[in-house]
Design a protein that fits this description.
Blueprint (H helix, E strand, L loop, with lengths): L25 E2 L11 H13 L9 H15 L8 E4 L2 H12 L5 E6 L4 H7 L4 E6 L1 E4 L5 E4 L2 H9 L3 E7 L11 H13 L3 E5 L20 H5 L1 E5 L2 H4 L7 E4 L3 H13 L9 H11 L1 H25 L4 E2 L7 E5 L7 H12 L1 E2 L1 E2 L10 E5 L4 H20 L1
Parallel strand pairs: 1-13, 3-4, 3-7, 7-8, 8-9
Antiparallel strand pairs: 2-10, 5-6, 9-10, 11-12, 12-15, 14-15
Length: 393
């Protein structure tokens, strides 16, 4: 079956957070897609909706099976059913982990730049974020390329007040896929210094065709025993509004702590469609996902070609995963916040300034390319116009 990733749908009037912008603006910021989810998922939801009664819902056996089978088939990682705990979302789970796995005023480490909402989960719960900047060099094409600064990481983890590392796998915003060797080394350092790892793997299924990510817990026994992993179908299948996710922990102590925390925080029960959507996604959505990943790779390639030809001094970090691109504007702007404000005011293009993500974000912005080609081309033309006006202002 050929799925439609070409048609641009009007999302205004649907209470869309992404599209709650002024008329004429083009939002390419928050991480949801401008594609309909897989028809198989829509049919499953419609079938459940047709029943007409939406009462309290039990967790079905099929829910855990769907996760287990998907990760074993697509990622060669066999998790056990009882390692999984339902939650309404990854961010609620992150906040629960901060509250339950650390104590007030303790430190939580992050490799920056990194997804900005993690800082909210840390600060709002009375903990202290510890930024560990990643090393940014250049790849074989001269484009920015990130890696772990091992000396800085060990120094941050060695602080006795640091008790949790929030790790992003694959990485948001750079789109980097971490290899098994890197994950093992991170795990070894965390084990050495008594630090628990919370691995956010919500973007894991959106990867270049033929590429796959490595689950943090799959690498070895050490990683498995010291970690809690956040999983969900929501980024992959554009289901964020369904509030369906899971945490996975092989270590029974960590799993119990998370189970207690999620239920204490009242984010451990699924709504009527949460289980239906997740089961349909993981049991029927694979063909749709394969075509989605091809479209996203084509969109990223189009962005790179356009930047090279039309926007001198602007280039991207090579993104192998996620539908996000980390765009380097360091040659034309020193303050991505000012540049993005200018871009929106002058052209209506709304993107995320890199300063939101800390680290070296002042020279980057984040671009969401999960959209039909007609919207992507509109965004690129607006970026070109905005960059030209910025340079000539």
């Amino acid at each position: 079956m050929i799925y439609d990733f070409e048609t641009a749908l009007d999302r205004r009037g649907t209470w869309s957070e992404k599209w709650d912008v002024a008329e004429g603006e083009l939002p390419m910021w928050v991480a949801d897609m401008d594609f309909r989810t897989a028809p198989e998922i829509i049919r499953a939801i419609e079938k459940r909706a047709a029943h007409g009664i939406y009462g309290y819902t039990c967790q079905p056996e099929e829910w855990a099976d769907a996760y287990v089978n998907w990760w074993e088939r697509r990622h060669a990682f066999r998790m056990e059913r009882d390692w999984l705990v339902f939650t309404t979302g990854v961010i609620p789970a992150v906040s629960t982990a901060v509250r339950k796995l650390t104590t007030p005023a303790e430190k939580v480490a992050l490799l920056t730049p990194i997804y900005n909402t993690f800082f909210n989960s840390i600060l709002n719960n009375g903990r202290v974020p510890v930024e560990i900047p990643m090393a940014c060099g250049a790849d074989g094409e001269g484009r920015p390329s990130y890696s772990v600064d091992w000396e800085a990481l060990e120094a941050g983890l060695a602080d006795p007040q640091t008790t949790l590392l929030i790790f992003c796998n694959p990485h948001n915003p750079t789109g980097k896929i971490w290899d098994a060797e890197t994950l093992a080394r991170v795990g070894a350092l965390c084990r050495k210094h008594g630090v628990t790892v919370l691995s956010d793997e919500i973007h894991c299924d959106i990867a270049d065709p033929g590429k796959g990510y490595v689950p943090f817990a799959s690498v070895n026994e050490v990683n498995r025993e010291i970690s809690v992993t956040c999983l969900a179908p929501t980024k992959t299948f554009n289901l964020a509004g369904m509030h369906t996710a899971a945490v996975m922990a092989a270590n029974p102590f960590l799993r119990h702590k998370m189970w207690r925390g999620l239920n204490t925080d009242e984010v451990g029960e699924g709504g009527t469609f949460a289980f239906t959507a997740a089961i349909a996604a993981f049991t029927e959505g694979e063909p749709w996902l394969e075509q989605l990943n091809a479209r996203i790779r084509a969109n990223k390639d189009r962005v790179d070609a356009f930047l090279a030809a039309e926007v001198p001094g602007v280039r991207s970090v090579r993104s192998e995963a996620t539908y996000l691109m980390w765009i380097d504007i360091g040659e034309i702007a020193a303050d991505s916040g000012a540049f993005c404000d200018f871009l929106r005011a002058e052209t209506g293009l709304f993107v995320c300034p890199g300063t939101w993500y800390h680290g070296d974000g002042a020279r980057f912005f984040r671009l969401n390319v999960a959209c039909p080609p007609v919207l992507l081309e509109d965004g690129l033309e607006r970026l070109k116009t905005g960059a030209e006006r910025w340079m000539n202002r």
